[in-house]
Amino acid sequence: MAIDTARISAAVLGRTLLGRFSRLSAAIVATALLVLSASAYYATRWSLEKQLDDELVEVASQVTESVVNDLVGMGGLNNTALAAMNVLLVLVDADGHTMRVPDDRVSMVPGDEEIAIARTQIGYSTRSVVGTDGQSYRMVAVPLQAEGARYALVLARSLQPTQTTLATMRTLFWWLGVVFVAVAVVAGLNSGRKVVEPLHDLAAAVAHVTETDELTPTGNDDDTEVGELSRNFDAMMSSLTASRERQKRLIADAGHELRTPLTSMRTNVELLVANEQSGMLPEDARAEILGDVAEQLAEFSALVSDLVQLAREDKVTLSGEPVDLAEVVSVAVERVRRRGHGLAFDVVLEPYYVVGEASTLERAIINLLDNAVKWSPSDATVHISLRDGVLTVADEGPGIADVDLPHVFERFYRSDKARNTPGTGLGLSIVDQAVTAHGGVVTAGNRPEGGALFTMKLPPAVASAASR
To answer: Which pLDDT tens digit goes with each residue over 299-350?
Structure first.
């Protein structure tokens, strides 16, 4: 397997999400190690110094009596005895004068802290100092009284063992930090890869769609946030696929349906153009052809209008106020009544409030009424009823054949009986689209008395909104 050096380099430099994840993991571990190491280091240092201070105080308590009994001879202590105890000794009075062991190898210089102990004779002091040999020492001063004078017995011990221990700890903490940070980087890369790989797959799917125009889903159904994002992406791909299929079908059907009126219109126009040159058509034939052209233009305009309506998205703009469906139906009935000469309209309407787009609902209801008018015989009655939120439109025509019932809302579907009647075959499709967009349902059937029966049901508006 080839190593993607560019991706690794980008990850290490933090230019990718994976790199940022690993660097964050390393930073967290490094910070935790720094805090823990510093805490352990200073706790150990304090503990070692405290232990050394306690040992020096214990040694001071042991030699104090000897020094008090032989102040001039420093209690008989010499370099050999002090070396055996691994300490240095200095006696300082309240005025800052010092008394030392004969042939003292290393001199300690008492300071204000030790003089304060000599003067006050209270407690003891501890601090780290540098001796005349250039090495570090831990120095302790305890009060001492001899021959009526106040002194401070100052003992010191080399800090070299303590510093060696602390240096070893620093080295150990340094290497442990390097090792653990490296482990954190590797662990961050591995764990981050598990998080980022689904995002890479999703990005690859998006790139594939961009490059190939193929709406391919990712198929990731993990129960994670990334899985949810992938499922939403797949849902979007499915929706786009369905929309594309509807668009292709609409274009194909529209091309087929537009071809017929265009062909007929072109033929008639060509005859009229030829007649202008030859005068071969009688006047009544020319008038008949012009009438056909006018009808074809009207048919063509209606078809284009219906296609534009169907090309709209299946979403409606919900009005802020509820819409009384009874008012919408009443307006639609009045518009259709003008072109339904000789027909009676039996209208029974009850108030029913819905949320939606009034113009879209009116267009759908007009299409239902136009369909009823088209199939109604002369002197018949179109029955319109809105009760309990259910709108029914019924005619007294021949009804719908059982074989046609499943297809009446399909685009461009024309039954055998409807092939020679005017219309685009899109009116009922527009009805179905509008009702579905409003969350409702429309069905087709036949009346027991004869004639077609269409039933529309829309969800009601909220009661509080409907009462405003």
So the answer is: 666 566 666 666 665 555 555 578 899 999 999 998 888 777 788 999 999 9
Task: Enter the pTM of the model.
Answer: 0.46
Alpha carbon of 10 to those of 15, 29, 197: distances in Å?
5, 21, 15
> Do 277 and 152 reside in the same domain of the chain?
no
Give me the phi and psi of 329, to 5 degrees please.
Answer: -65, -40
Whether 302 is in a domain gets the answer yes
Burial class (CB in 10 A: 0-12, 13-18, 19+), 379: exposed
Q: How far is CA 5 from CA 10, 15, 203, in A?
A: 8, 13, 20
**Measured distance CA(281)–CA(144) in Å, rounded:** 146
Residues 332 and 440 in one domain: yes
Residues 6+ apart with CB under 8 A from 432: 409, 442
Contacts of 9 (CB under 8 A, 6+ apart): none
CB-based burial label for 259 (10 Å; 0-12, 13-18, 19+): exposed
Separation CA 89–CA 66 (nearest Å): 13
The answer on pLDDT for 455 being more than 90 is yes
Read off the pLDDT of each residue in 233-238 and give the average, rounded to a whole number: 77
Claim to verify: residue 460 and residue 338 sit in the same structural domain: yes
Dihedral class, residue 93 (left if φ above 0, else alpha if ψ from -120 to 50, else beta)? beta
pLDDT digits (tens, 9 = 90+) for 416-442: 555 455 555 677 888 888 888 888 999
Q: Which two structure tokens, joined as six digits, stand for 303?
A: 């078809």
Judgement on whether residues 84 and 144 belong to the same structural domain of the protein: yes
Q: Are residues 295 and 425 in the same domain?
A: no
Percent of the chain surpassing pLDDT 70: 78
* CB < 8 Å & 24+ apart, contacts of 41-45: 41/166, 41/169, 41/170, 41/173, 44/165, 44/166, 44/169, 45/162, 45/166
148, with CB counted inside 10 A (0-12, 13-18, 19+), is exposed
330 and 417 share one domain: yes
Determine, yes or no, domain membership for 60: no
Residue 360 lies in a domain: yes
